[in-house]
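Standup notes
- DV: blocked on the single-chain target, sequence here:
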Amino acid sequence: MRDLISEECEKKEALKNRIENVFRSYGYRQLKTPAIEYLETYTNAYGDVKDEEMYKFFDQEGKTLALRTDMTVPIARMCASKFANAKPPFRFRYSSDVFKVRHTFADREVRLLTAALN
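- DV (later): unblocked, structure below
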């Protein structure tokens, strides 16, 4: 997680647009998935999912939700549900943020904060 300001945002957006234009020119269709998935979707896809590396919370019915940690699972879920009767091959393009807990980053921030306070 980091903040991007003006020029960084513009450079990132320009690069993203260039890449997407290449994929678009070859017939790849854009997809977008929600940033939130049911945790069960990940456990079904990856039997050994490390849920301590995921940001989790609960919906109003008590089901466990997670911020997406990759794009493979949401895209596969979407293909299985929305394109079940479509004829492959599929040409999709997508670009989205993913969210992973990185203990090494957290530990580093704690050390830096501790050093700054001493």
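- Follow-up: The beta strands are 29-30, 36-38, 56-58, 64-67, 92-93.
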